[in-house]
Structures are given as structure tokens and as C-alpha cells.
Design a protein that fits this description.
With about 140 residues, the protein is mostly beta strands. It has one helix and seven strands, in the order ββββαβββ.
Length: about 140
């Protein structure tokens, strides 16, 4: 049996709105919406263009609040669009992790914490405009 080499990640190091943030967990989903091209020649069938009409990325991330300045900013009622540069830090020698760059809208922010613990947070970010995703190098 053959076992492939995986990437063991530690955390995501991000610059979020100009502030350094560490996400202990980051998940993302990429969605594509089709452009319909159905015409009179399509008969009873719906047709779509081969390339997506729109693409979006949604990120959910959690972390430990080590820097409250961006949490305070995110809690305020002003602009919630932030430039994001996130890089997955990998433990494997010679490996670089995935990277995500773009402008993201802060859709949700949750904060909490228990007794005698650092405050934790969780965010949902939605892409606003173009974004790039770079594959990890193994």
C-alpha cells in the first residue's frame, strides 16, 4: 500500500486589515455560478456557458485573540471590507503552504472565552472582488 505525502499544518498567519492575525483553523469554500446560455435552439434543455459567470470564496476561521485592535475595529459599525493575505504555515521541511490573497467582507464575528483563558474568536469572510489561491508546494 502506498501512502501519499500530506501537509501537516500548524496555523494560518494572516495580515487582516493591516494587522497581523493568527488563525488556528481556517476552512474555505469556492463557489462558481454558471451563466445561462439557453436559447431557442436549446429545445427543452437548459444550457450553460462552460466557464463560471461569477466565482466567490467564503472563509471560516478561528483563533486566539492575541491582538485586540482589529477585533475592536471589526466590532465597530464602519467598513467591514478588509485586505487579507493568509499563508498556511507548514511543519514539513521544504514545504510551503497554501496562500489566499484578496479583499474580503467580514460577515460574522464571534468572540468568547472561558475562565483563566485567552479570548477566542471566529470569523466568516466573504470575497469582495478578485482573489487568488496558491496551491501548497510539497
Amino acid at each position: 500500500m502506498s501512502v501519499g505525502a500530506g501537509i501537516h499544518t500548524r496555523e494560518w498567519e494572516a495580515t487582516f486589515g493591516g494587522t497581523s492575525v493568527i488563525f488556528t483553523e481556517l476552512n474555505y469554500s469556492i463557489s462558481h455560478s454558471p451563466s445561462e446560455t439557453t436559447g431557442s435552439q436549446s429545445g427543452q434543455y437548459t444550457e450553460y456557458h462552460a466557464e463560471p459567470g461569477t466565482s466567490s470564496m467564503t472563509i471560516t476561521a478561528t483563533g486566539v485573540a492575541r491582538n485586540n485592535s482589529w477585533l475592536k475595529s471589526a466590532s465597530a459599525g464602519g467598513s467591514q471590507a478588509y485586505l487579507l493575505n493568509a499563508e498556511c504555515l507548514a511543519d514539513n521541511a521544504g514545504t510551503s503552504g497554501s496562500q489566499i490573497d484578496g479583499t474580503f467582507f467580514l460577515a460574522t464575528l464571534e468572540q468568547g472565552g472561558g475562565g483563566n483563558e485567552l479570548m477566542t474568536f471566529s470569523v466568516t469572510l466573504q470575497s469582495s472582488g478578485a482573489w487568488t489561491f496558491t496551491d501548497p508546494v510539497v
